[in-house]
Write a structure and sequence with these properties.
By secondary structure, this protein is α+β, with helices and mostly antiparallel strands. About 25% of the residues lie in helices and about 20% in strands. The chain has 3 helices and 5 strands; from the N terminus they run αβββααββ. It has a 5-stranded antiparallel beta sheet, covered by helices on one side. Strand 1 and strand 2 form a beta hairpin. About 30% of the residues are buried. The structure holds adenosine monophosphate. The site of adenosine monophosphate (AMP) has 13 residues, from loops.
Amino acid sequence: MSATVYDKNNIFARILRGEIPCSKVFENDDVLAFHDIHPQAPVHVLVIPKGEYVTFGDFVAAAPATTVAAFFQAVGTLASTLGVIDSGYRIVSNNGTGGGQEVPHFHVHLKGGKGAVA
Ligand code: AMP
């Protein structure tokens, strides 16, 4: 499987460079998390790796295992700190145009709170 060419000017790349603001929830060396600009649930946060990966497939194929682990550990920690464990939550990643992916930088949607599962 070959990696997709990464567009360095996609909107999440611009957020990572600080060119566009975001409503930041969490950040460490590997990960940035921020509120989705069009929330579809009471809690709707996007979690993105800082590296340049277009899709989930690119990420797990090319990122170091420690980076993949750090990413998913951050998603799990965020579910707890955002307070959605009791309400329940979804983690969703859209991949490719056929998969509904609009922004070509790998990301996970973390959606929780009352009404998160429609
Ligand atoms: P996807 O369809 O999985 O690529 O989802 C992209 C998501 O990014 C959508 O839910 C958008 O609402 C969200 N989005 C787009 N631009 C921004 C932005 N500047 N800040 C926060 N979220 C954004």
